[in-house]
Amino acid sequence: MKIPVVDLSTCIQCGICYELCPEVFRMNDAGYVEVTESADYPELDVNDCIKCCPTDCIYWEEA
Ligand code: SF4
Fold this sequence. Notes:
Helix content: 10-25%
Order of helices and strands: EHEEHE
Oligomer: single chain
Bound molecules: iron/sulfur cluster
CATH topology: Alpha-Beta Plaits
Largest sheet: 2 strands, antiparallel
C-alpha cells in the first residue's frame, strides 16, 4: 500500500495540501502538517497536492 509522506524539513506550512485535501492532510497542534491514518488514500487528490506543493515535499512511500 502507498502512503503519502510530507518532508517536514522542506514544508513551508503554506496550507495548500490541507485546503485541497483535508481528509488526508491536516495541521497538528504543534503547527506542522501531518498525514491522517487511512487504509485507502485518495490517489488522485493526493497527486493534485503533490503537483501543487510549492516545495515538492509530498511524496508517496510504499508501506
Ligand atoms: S503544500 Fe507542501 S509546503 Fe504547503 S503545507 Fe502542504 S506539504 Fe507543506
